[in-house]
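ok so for the tutorial part 2 we go from a plain amino acid sequence to predicted structure tokens. step 1 is just haveing the sequence, like this:
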Amino acid sequence: MTRVSCNRSLGMMSVVGGLILASVIAPRLGAQNLGPFRQLLALEGSYQRLQLDAGEGSDRVGLDGYGVRLWINLAPFSGPRPNLIDKTAIALAYSTTFRGDDQIGTRQYGAELNMYPLHVPIANLIDPFLILGAGAFRIDNRNNTSVVDGAFAAGSRSYFAFSPGLGIRIPIPNRLQLRLEARDLILFNRRDGSGDSRTSQSPQFMAGAGLTF
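step 2 — the prediction. this is what the tokens look like for a chain of 213 residues:
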């Protein structure tokens, strides 16, 4: 089994395992309603599609993968008066993506912040939000050459990543939720095959399902 295949299996296992764990402990904790739909915690698994920047003059590299996130709603900690914290959630996140030929893969670790502009979802169904994410992003080039579908430095390299975006949350009865997101993944001081440093931008799309409790 290749390392990417192993990462793929671990990613799927973490998503499934996280959802099973949440389903076991959620009934014991009990829901803390923050308005009609938002609860204190949410554990989520997601599918991801990344169009990774491969350098000037090169086509983007399409990568698919999986992720898991633990969300914490900050409203219970905001105090008696309404403020921005009432509409904020933060998360710890991990994701991995890979290409079918096992030559290119990525890993992303970090924290995320969501801002919900509405007090309750539109028609009790659509809950839009703004996204700000930051953390470490690692690119693995397993071909051991400096060029694979464009300018990728050989080996494994990690970068600081910033990922702003937009999304919608769809609450479902019985503690479930769906999330759709579109982001701009920005990598700073990225090294290409020639050793030059630059800032790259890559479209990133996510679809997730989670349990709230």
